[in-house]
Amino acid sequence: MNVKKEKQPYFLVIGLGASGISMAKFLCSKGKTVIATDIDASKTKIAQELNGLGIKTEIGFHDQKTFNQAGVMVPSPGIPKTNKFIKTAFDLGVGITGELDIFTRYNDLPVIAITGTNGKTTTTTLIGDILKSCGMTPFVGGNIGTPLVDHLMNKGKTDVIVAEISSFQLDISRQFRPDVGVLLNISEDHLDRYENYQEYESSKWSIFNHQNSSDKAVINESVKDFYMLSQKLKSRIFTFSSDKDTLTNCNAKIDSKSIKIITRELNHTIKTNQLKELKGTHNKENIAAAVLACLALGADINDIQKGLETFKNLPHRMEFIKTIDGISFYNDSKGTNTDAVIRAIKCFEKNIILILGGREKGTDFSLLVNDIQKSVKTIIAMGECRTLIKDIFKNICPVLEVHTMKEAVQTAFNKAFKDDIVLLSPACASFDMYKNYAHRGNDFVTLVNALGNK
């Protein structure tokens, strides 16, 4: 039977999370025939809403025939191309696209796009706040939580798009071309989805694939393979670094107290010790990237400085909660990989009681050994991989296994003394116990706020 003859001119939206729902509604608003499918049987309420718009839904199951006969598949970022339904249809000639390419087709505004393993959300939000201080009206969205197509349905007075972009989104993009692309860092992550580090690295660098000489690329010069891979880019490159071995020709040189901005057009120093909200070297890198991205778009350095001074840090990213009896509690629930945890530990350097664990994703916990040995007094291990964590670190420091966040918080408090830091920075996904990292972080915050004095 000739499958291509059976293909129908409908878009198959796969997955009805926030991005899938917005995508289905947007395509429908453009007069497209849309079918939406989600294997989660609980999505009946949103299905009814979509049905009311004329969108057919298949909830609680996937029908291979629906996949095979689609004109094009639009999977949500969390659904891999290797999904058996997608792969079977793709092998039969059904096309696949994603939010980035559909957004590109309809967007007419300049785009700053930010990717990297860590710091994406902080940097994206920071750029948005800086541009507001420069008198602009940015739409801030993408992987940060608000789907990009939401802008296309409610354009308003927006004059620039600031988009957090994940590797999953980039994996199925063939047209996305940001005016300013930002690569913050790359460290091992999502190795449950990628065959190896090189494949993950390639995905991150692909944010620059479709840029030309009029576009700009802002890149951390200390990322692995920078010199080799940057040679392939057509865009004008701006670099930043906190690594003393790569500072010579950087456009943003980071030291302990400042960031020196040096471009063709500008020589300026930002005193980072006056920016209390953004602790640690990793946040100085985020600042440097944000400043260069805004300059690349044409923003004025004095307005940029004002935006930095008024920025407030985000929940779940090194968020200070409170101090009880001299013990300080920090929520870094967004720290879902080892590199993020290392960055968090380096903000304090000593006297840390570290809450680790959750659902691991091909994580090499041994990467944490050196920093934990230097700075962590006790590990509280929770979640699916708590036993694995105990096995790895039991000879480095005391490791206590717990089964709930309540038990983790209380155990950490019981073990802590004055001037200690209790840090939730799990190095793991949250899905074994929570809906997402924010759900986990909110639970931590609630439990910490419920603690009394010792």
Describe this structure in words.
A nine-stranded mixed sheet has the order 7-8-6-9-10-11-12-13-14, covered by helices on one side. It has a six-stranded mixed sheet with strand order 15-16-20-17-18-19, sandwiched between helices. It is of the alpha/beta class. 35% of the residues lie in helices and 21% in strands. It contains 18 helices and 20 strands. The chain has three domains: 89 residues, 3-Layer(aba) Sandwich (Rossmann fold); 210 residues, Mur-like, catalytic domain (UDP-N-acetylmuramoyl-L-alanine:D-glutamate ligase, 3-Layer(aba) Sandwich); 131 residues, Mur ligase, C-terminal domain (Protein-Tyrosine Phosphatase, Chain A, Alpha-Beta Complex). The longest helix is centred in the middle third of the chain and has 16 residues. Helix 7 packs across helix 12.
